[in-house]
Design goal:
Length: 477
């Protein structure tokens, strides 16, 4: 198991910031943002631990664009895109992630891109960025469609038997299979069946660590034992695969590209341990984002038959029954808009935590040094100043005309600023291909009587199994 990264070192004298946008006036103030009163001692911590998305949304509706949560852990929620831009982009050096968040993540991913800060993060970004260029990622399109075809062949048998399926579980398995093919150019069937529960166990325990006032890693428990076992499983799978790729050489998968990567500034290269850290980060962040977005997409399409008909018509017209390729993506415009709207309503990464490295002022309110600052895309994506009918499912919001004048920070499914998700192109290349292939062969209908709730964990996924009926297209009107 890789040890946690060393604590973040904040800059002692950051350079002067660029001018702030309207509404962000630097001044000396002690004005505290409005917020819920909460418990006299605990503040709002119980509500946040129980369901932070609902707590943040309720606070935004009652108190506005910047909210102060009282309690043992003081938190400020930022909802307005101007404030989001201030923290995630314009003044990002003054808002690193909280050490607790970084430490919890680093227990899984070491000092990889997902958890690193400062110079370690910059080095990892320089070394990994070329492998995620869209022109490089195009080569994996055939792998994604092959994995999807295998999944759909299995669905044919289940459809004949009249069995509903858990679309959340199916999309989780598919996203892991696609990621394994891109990372190692292998079907990795047996390994995926082992790493999938290990990743889920590690993520679940990490979420509990982040939200608990007492670190469960410090005390013996069955959960801690399972977590450590999950890390051992992940390492036992990743290290041999990395060593094999280094020994064989010459591959065109992502791991081979990382092995060959050279830092343009230092001339340094990744060690096997560092590649393990990066790959584990891709498994933690990459598959969860994609599988969650796809799950919500099928749920929303089942509730919006007109949008489903439009998507089906586009797929039929563009593909005419053949397997899609990456060259078809520019023509699958409505399919892409459906995915964008799904991620607006249910952003997989629904919260970004930062910590003020020094005193600041946002929107005329004092942000003291050490204060945790929360950007919640779930809230910002429903801001009525930037989204008409914010609770409605309207993929047409994302036409070029409707998007032209929208605030750039009003929509951030992959984050924003220098730490924007490196895998955004990977996700937006993979997901339209998957959606198009499934729509060619099946209509997915929600099993009646289900109550579907979002679960704010590492990602904002459906809380329970998402059971859907498979309707082969030849049986649908």
């Amino acid at each position: 198991m890789c040890p946690p990264s060393s604590p973040t070192t904040y800059p002692s004298s950051p350079c002067d910031p660029p001018p702030l946008r309207k509404g962000l006036v630097r001044m000396t103030t002690t004005l505290v943002p409005p917020g819920p009163r909460g418990h006299p001692v605990l503040g709002s911590i119980r509500e946040i631990q129980r369901d932070n998305v609902s707590a943040f949304m309720e606070a935004f509706r009652h108190h506005g664009d910047i909210v102060n949560f009282r309690g043992p852990l003081r938190i400020n929620l930022l909802a307005h895109p101007d404030y989001v831009q201030h923290v995630l982009r314009d003044q990002h050096k003054r808002y690193p992630r909280p050490r607790k968040v970084q430490g919890c993540l680093s227990t899984i991913v070491g000092d990889g891109l997902v958890a690193a800060e400062g110079t370690s993060w910059l080095r990892s970004r320089r070394l990994t960025q070329p492998a995620f260029h869209r022109d490089i990622l195009r080569r994996f399109g055939d792998s994604f469609t092959a994995s999807t075809a295998e999944l759909l062949d299995g669905w044919e048998r289940r459809a004949r038997d009249g069995e509903p399926l858990d679309i959340k579980s199916e999309m989780m398995h598919l996203s892991l299979a696609n990621l394994a093919r891109a990372l190692f150019r292998t079907e990795w069937t047996d390994e995926v069946s082992r790493i999938e529960p290990a990743v889920q166990e590690a993520l679940g325990f990490t979420h509990r660590r982040m939200t608990s006032p007492v670190d469960p890693l410090k005390f013996p428990s069955a959960a801690r034992t399972r977590f450590r076992g999950a890390l051992e499983t992940i390492n036992s799978l990743l290290y041999p695969m990395v060593a094999e790729r280094r020994r064989d050489g010459g591959g065109d998968d992502l791991v081979s590209l990382l092995i060959d990567a050279v830092d343009p500034e230092s001339g340094g290269m990744f060690t096997d341990e560092q590649i393990r850290d990066e790959v584990s980060g891709f498994f933690v962040a990459g598959h969860e984002t994609v599988s969650t977005a796809l799950s919500w997409t099928w749920y929303l399409l089942s509730l919006n038959p007109e949008s489903r008909r439009r998507l089906q018509a586009e797929v039929d017209e563009v593909l005419a029954g053949r397997v899609p390729t990456v060259d078809d993506l520019p023509k699958l415009t409505y399919t892409t808009m459906v995915l964008q709207e799904s991620m607006r309503l249910y952003p997989p990464i629904f919260v970004y935590m930062r910590c003020a490295a020094e005193d600041d002022v946002i929107g005329g309110y004092h942000i003291p040094e050490g204060r945790w600052v929360v950007v919640c895309p779930y809230v910002t994506h429903r801001h009525p100043e930037f989204w008409d009918n914010p609770e409605g499912f309207e993929p047409e919001r994302f036409t070029p005309e409707n998007s032209a004048n929208r605030h750039r920070m009003a929509y951030l499914p992959f984050g924003a600023g220098p730490r924007k998700c490196i895998g955004d192109s990977f996700a937006m290349l993979q997901m339209p291909l998957v959606v198009a292939m499934i729509a060619q062969r099946f209509r997915l209908d929600l099993v009646e009587g289900q109550q579907v709730f979002p679960e704010p964990a590492i990602s904002l996924r459906p809380r329970d199994p998402l059971m859907m009926w498979l309707r082969p297209n030849e049986e649908t009107p």
